[in-house]
Amino acid sequence: MKCPRCGSGLNRVQYEGVRIEVCPGCQGEWLHPGELQKIVEHHGKVFTPDEIASLDAVNKEIFTAEKDDRDELNCPCCQSMRMEHFNYGDTSGIILHKCPECGGVWTDKEQLGKVERVVDGWKKRLRQDSKKYGSILKKVELKERQNLDKAVSISHFGFVNAVLRRFCE
């Protein structure tokens, strides 16, 4: 396969336990469908809080980056198929390219590491938010269950409601 950015031949390498293609010229990376998910879910490198925080500047330029990204790259796998650019996670500011035909993803130099740092930041914030808002979320969940019980209440008997709730979940 050829690099969609500079035309160099792509080399296969191991990255976080996944075989991907890397351009020796521009350092871009081609990920087949599902490989990006495997990498962000199972990467072994732990990023420091400073590295995670370094992406805050990127996050502040989300709309500018998306608006200014006018790359028209063809898929290295499908060759004539034009890839669509997208903002990873909708709000990260990291613009990646995805082939609508085969589902492969092109990342420019160092973007894969940025994606990993963003995901690490999200995971860290999720743990913090769970601690902070966990009790509130449990109350909301209880209220939703009560509303569901009322909505599907065919019988006044708690046992029947419990059985119906299990079928609705």
Q: In words, what does this structure look like?
A:
The chain has helices at residues 35-42, 49-53, 56-60, 62-68, 111-151, 158-168; strands at residues 11-15, 18-22, 29-31, 84-87, 95-98, 105-107. The chain has 169 residues and is α+β, with helices and mostly antiparallel strands. It has a domain at 11-124.
Strand order of the largest sheet: 1-2-3-6-5-4
Count of individual beta strands: 6
Overall, the morphology is elongated
Strand content: 5-15%
Number of helices: 6
Task: Walk me through the topology.
Layout lengths: L10 E5 L2 E5 L6 E3 L3 H8 L6 H5 L2 H5 L1 H7 L15 E4 L7 E4 L6 E3 L3 H41 L6 H11 L1
Antiparallel strand pairs: 1-2, 2-3, 3-6, 4-5, 5-6
Jot down its keywords.
46% helix, 169 residues, six-stranded antiparallel beta sheet, alpha+beta, 6 strands, elongated
Summarize the structure.
This protein is an alpha+beta fold. Helices cover 46% and strands 14% of the residues.
